[in-house]
Specification:
The protein is α/β, with parallel strands linked by helices. The protein contains 13 helices and 17 strands. The longest helix has 17 residues.
Length: about 425
């Protein structure tokens, strides 16, 4: 759409939300603009028909499973029959005009992508946070609308715009728990949904590996509970954490369990979910960027690479090989050709390296240890499986650290010119 303001004499826009569930909608055109419109219409669960000789690969992917009906030809009069809403999004102004004229005669609202002045409806810049929908009309300037929308969504996500109706539990209201994966540590790596949940919390039960700077931005009335589990040091028992989640939720509070990485990757998230379910407390899981993949990636190390490895395995190293409580099949891991990623394995690294070599892994296999991943203190130590114990001691590696075993470690990104 052009950015020319529409003559005010034509009337201001009347904002309204269309409920298109199971109602037929016709989109004429198969390019990028049509694709964006179809994506939003499918989210509204409309029955979408696309009329176009060709469509983008992304649109074609929607046709296969039946989400979209594709009429593979140019637009013809009568294509809007039975439609509740229409979009004219071809690159031919004459076709768009014909679609708009048919829509006008049939009293069907039509968004014409190339000419706002000739459209009977304007598509706002929209964004969603849970059940909240933000729509902005920019007075004829789409970029202005997008900028305001993004600012509003950012404010709602980080809490600078207070959604008090969403945050306030009210007297007698049911509480809930959200298990949020905070990612490897950098607050910029938490998901949008995770950040939103934190901003709306009444109580945050946080690990020391969770993004700590998010806590400093919370309002003073939000209770923050330290549930850190320090390696070989002080820690809050899991049973106590479970009890706190249930206790605060039953008191009508919105509780966020903020964890490092992903709740279900060595994070005991399932134990917390089960405790809430048994207590009848509603619980939501918000996945996070696991350090098993994210931290190597930040160090320029892919866990897979075409033609080099077809598998990767993530292992908890908190107990060494040979320990009666270990559930890891170390002989099988020693025979693997692919990538092995070890979490919580700094102190046990010598025993793990020895076990892998004993069961067949070449001691010359490249290894990278990434300490304090995603933080300003991040550093990478490159060595081999055989030399790993010495490198950890000489480099003074302490938790948190992720180490990666495999040929992917030897890959180097091309030099920038």
């Amino acid at each position: 759409m052009n950015a020319t303001p529409v003559d005010p004499a034509s009337g201001v826009v009347y904002p309204v939300g269309l409920r298109l569930l199971d109602r037929p909608v016709v989109v004429v055109g198969g390019g990028q603009v049509a694709h964006r419109r179809v994506a939003g219409l499918l989210e509204a669960r409309a029955r979408v028909t696309v009329v176009s000789p060709e469509v983008t690969p992304a649109l074609e992917a929607l046709v296969g499973p039946g989400a979209v009906t594709w009429v593979r030809r140019r637009y013809a009069p009568g294509d809007l029959a039975g439609a509740w809403y229409a979009v004219a999004a071809t690159d031919d102004p004459a076709v768009n005009a014909a679609v708009a004229e048919e829509a006008e005669r049939a009293r069907v609202f039509c968004a014409r992508a190339d000419d706002r002045a000739s459209s009977s409806v304007w598509t706002p810049a929209t964004g969603r946070l849970g059940d909240l929908v933000v729509g902005v009309h920019g007075g004829g300037d789409p970029q202005r609308a997008v900028g305001v929308r993004d600012a509003v969504l950012a404010g709602l996500t980080d809490g600078t715009i207070a959604d008090r109706a969403a945050r306030s539990p009210g007297s007698g209201a049911a509480g809930s728990v959200v298990l949020v994966g905070g990612g490897p540590g950098d607050p910029g790596l938490i998901t949008v949904r995770g950040k939103q949940a934190v901003s709306q919390a009444d109580v945050v039960v946080a690990d020391h590996l969770a993004p700590q700077s998010l806590l400093s931005s919370l309002p003073p009335d939000v209770e923050v509970i330290d549930a850190s589990k320090l390696p070989r040091g002080r820690s809050m028992k899991q049973e106590q954490i479970n009890a706190l989640l249930v206790e605060h939720a039953r008191a009508g509070r919105r509780v966020v369990r903020l964890k490092g990485g992903d709740p279900f990757v060595f994070g005991r998230g399932m134990e917390e979910l089960e405790a809430c379910a048994v207590a009848g407390v509603p619980v939501e899981v918000v996945p996070g960027v696991t350090s098993a993949i994210g931290v190597p990636g930040l160090a320029g190390i892919p866990v897979t690479h075409r033609g080099l490895t077809h598998e990767f395995v993530v292992v908890s190293g908190h107990v060494p090989p040979g320990d009666p409580s270990s559930l890891v099949d170390w002989p099988a891991l020693g025979r693997l050709r692919g990538t092995v990623v070890v979490l919580m394995g700094v102190d046990t690294a010598p025993a793990i390296a020895a076990a892998l070599v004993e069961h067949g892994r070449d001691p010359a296999t490249p290894v990278a240890v990434v300490a304090d991943g995603s933080t300003p203190a991040q550093r990478t130590v490159r060595t081999t499986l055989g030399e790993l114990p010495r490198a950890i001691v000489e480099e003074g590696i302490r938790p948190p650290a992720v180490w990666v075993i495999g040929e992917v470690v030897a890959l180097q990104p091309p030099a920038r010119h």
